[in-house]
Design brief:
With 174 residues, the protein is α/β, with parallel strands linked by helices. The chain has a single domain, classed as Thiamin diphosphate (ThDP)-binding fold, Pyr/PP domains (Rossmann fold). Helices cover 44% and strands 16% of the residues. The chain contains six helices and six strands. Helix 1 crosses helix 2, helix 1 runs parallel beside helix 6 and helix 3 packs parallel to helix 4. The longest helix is centred in the N-terminal third of the chain and has 15 residues. It is globular.
Length: 174
């Protein structure tokens, strides 16, 4: 399995193996392989139009006993900060976030750079830890995704997986 396929399948499999039953997401080229793997494995897919809608939908599903994950590009993180900071974090609704990173290593689009570089600090300001996946072969995906799912489900802490540019599969990546 080629690296660009291996990591996406590994992330998707780790989410499913960790019990994710619905993925709230927005379209993104780097996420396509992960989303396809989730759909192949029977996860319900909810493609929404704004990042805060994904967070709100996933929070509702979690409170109703579901096991959602939110998948989005980091450039949309700014849109979701209020939903994360006023609902998810203070009420201990542990959501796993999967963020496709833009605006960092090798980015060619200047509009992506400010939020991309600020993403770790924005998450830290809300006490949301972020863990990066960089291995195109997906060797670290199971442990990182599994750890984020444990933080979310058992500790009630929202946590994020960052899909870094070294993985390929997205614009602006090396």
């Amino acid at each position: 399995m080629s690296g660009s396929i291996a990591w996406a399948a590994a992330v998707g499999d780790a989410l499913v193996d960790g019990g994710v039953d619905v993925a709230a997401h927005l379209p993104d080229s780097r996420l396509q392989g992960v989303l396809a793997r989730l759909a192949e494995r029977g996860v319900a897919m909810r493609c929404l139009t704004r990042e805060e809608e994904c967070v709100g939908y996933a929070a509702g599903r979690a409170l109703a006993g579901g096991r959602p994950a939110v998948l989005m590009q980091c450039s949309g993180l700014g849109n979701s900060l209020n939903a994360l900071g006023s609902l998810v974090v203070p009420y201990g609704i542990g959501l796993p976030l999967v963020l496709s990173m833009r605006g960092t290593l090798g980015e060619a689009n200047p509009a992506q750079v400010p939020i991309g570089l600020a993403t770790p600090a924005l998450l830290a300001a809300l006490a949301i830890p972020v863990y990066s996946i960089r291995d195109p072969d997906g060797r670290d995906a199971a442990s990182i995704v599994g750890g984020v799912l444990t933080l979310a489900r058992r500790a009630g802490r929202t946590a994020a997986v960052a899909l870094e540019p070294e993985l390929g599969g997205g614009r602006g990546a090396h």
